[in-house]
Specification:
By secondary structure, the protein is of the alpha+beta class. The chain contains 14 helices and 17 strands. A hairpin with a 4-residue loop joins strand 16 and strand 17 (about 385-390). The model has no long low-confidence stretch (mean pLDDT about 95).
């Protein structure tokens, strides 16, 4: 059983932490973006790994829970503990230093509390790129991104957060420190503990530092928005784009008309690419080496695809401003969704060959429950769909509270039946613990429980996240 982080324990923490580590305003740390949970507990922000170790060691001895807190942008409740004895909420925000940059090695070592946009800027300063890119990059922090194995728009070319990390520094559940900040590309000395910690959502330890992989900056970039007749045609277009352009295809985003309608209905304001909005469009983004001309490459792609009946119309960016305008459309859709208010939102992934069938069948399954609007969009190149269900005009999400479970179950059951995952890039957190148990392989769950028990026998690390206490 865990003990609460009470006033007496706060006195203990003040003996091992400086005054600067304690937060006067704790409210921002006790809620999450969707407002589904309200947390409580003592909030501390250590300034270095030794202070993190001191906090975790004290919690280990007192049997007090530890909830690591990064940028607070997670959407599955991993950063909030609403039930059980009050924990220590351990914010990494003061650990925000870029420790070293090695341009010739394409490597950077950073504190876990560094904001993603600052990592990207530091890479740009040495003519390199850190390719992890997502909508919350102005506030999301590296530790949380690695702890959730975040995805984003560039997974097609560069992989998830896991692929961008070479080594880690981690405070273990007993307060000891694993010094794993290797810059090696090859290291076959035992178990791959780095990949064990990445995606563990703070349940096996606290990531305090990371050795990150950088890549060369593309010599030129470009983008196009292409109208396609169907999701099946979009998948054929993706295959054609990869055949013609190879690794130059950085992102391939699928957008449904409903997303554009939401933008027109509630904002944010965007410039629509077509006068008559088609049902489906794709955003293709390129990063090309020296000598490549993105506009010409995209024009050739459009011509070939048009001859094959895969595209009906298209707009090719003629400047960086055009490209930014295209991405502004894609990045504004989640905000429009928030303003409309979903009945149930889903972050799922599917085998590419099953995407079109899922979209068709999913609409039918939702129609059995009631009349809704579906906004399906996402990173088609890696099979990740954001499949969100909304009320029709004149009704609100509150009118469908009794339908939420049925909608979620229908979507997740179909996803699982088609060989997909009910958590593509946001993690399990607390929102999807029961889903993991329902859809997870029993042998995998048994191994996860064994690892958790071995590394964190008192279950103090992020209690209730990923696995039930």
């Amino acid at each position: 059983m865990l003990n609460p982080a009470d006033d007496a324990f706060a006195v203990q923490l003040r003996q091992v932490l400086p005054a600067a580590a304690f937060k006067d305003d704790t409210a921002p740390y006790l809620t999450e973006p969707r407002g589904r949970w309200q947390g409580r507990g003592i909030v501390v922000a250590p300034g270095n790994v030794a202070e993190v170790a001191a906090v975790v060691s004290a919690c280990h001895l007192a049997r007090v829970g530890v909830v690591p807190y990064s940028g607070g942008t997670g959407l599955v409740g991993g950063q909030i503990m609403p039930d059980g004895p009050a924990p220590v909420i351990l914010s990494l925000e003061r650990m925000n230093q870029i420790r070293a940059v090695y341009p010739l090695e394409n490597t950077m070592i950073v504190d876990a509390g560094v904001i993603l946009a600052d990592v990207q800027k530091a890479a740009q300063d040495v003519d390199r790129m850190f390719p992890l890119s997502l909508a919350s990059e102005g506030s999301a922090r590296i530790g949380g991104l690695l702890s959730t194995n975040a995805g984003g728009v560039n997974v097609l070319r560069y992989g998830n957060a896991r692929a961008q990390c070479l080594g880690l520094e981690v405070v273990r559940p007993d307060g000891s420190i694993w010094h794993g900040l290797t810059r090696l590309r090859k290291d076959n000395t035992g178990y791959d503990l780095r990949n064990l910690m990445i995606g563990a959502e703070g349940t096996l330890g606290v990531i305090t530092g990371a050795a990150l992989r950088l890549v060369p900056q593309p010599a030129s970039v470009g983008a196009a928005i292409l109208a396609v007749p169907s999701p099946a045609a979009a998948l054929e277009l993706l295959a054609l784009a990869q055949a013609q352009l190879g690794d130059a295809v950085s992102a391939f985003e699928l957008i449904h008309r409903q997303g554009m309608d939401f933008l027109a209905e509630v904002g944010p304001a965007v410039k629509a690419p077509f006068a008559d909005q088609p049902d489906w469009i794709v955003l293709v983004d390129l990063g090309m080496p020296q000598g490549g001309v993105p506009e010409a490459a995209l024009a050739r792609l459009f011509e070939t695809a048009a001859d094959m009946g895969l595209v009906q119309d298209g707009v090719i960016a003629q400047s960086l401003a055009d490209r930014q305008a295209f991405w502004h459309i894609r990045e504004s859709i989640p905000e429009a969704n928030r303003r409309v208010g979903s009945v149930s939102s889903h972050d799922i992934s599917l085998p590419l060959g099953a995407v079109a069938e899922f979209i068709a069948q999913g609409a039918g399954e939702i129609a059995k429950i009631g009349t809704f609007r579906i906004n399906c969009f996402g990173h088609l190149g890696d099979g990740n769909l954001h499949y969100n269900v909304f009320p029709v005009p004149g009704r609100s999400r509150e009118d469908h509270l009794s339908d939420r479970t049925a909608v979620k179950t229908a979507v997740h059951d179909l996803t699982h039946a088609m060989g997909g995952s009910v958590s593509a890039e946001h993690g399990i957190g607390r929102l999807k613990v029961e889903d993991l148990i329902s859809y997870g392989d029993p042998a995998k769950l048994a191994m996860m429980r064994a690892i958790k028990s071995a590394l964190d026998p008192h279950y103090i690390m992020n209690p209730g996240a990923v696995l039930p206490v």
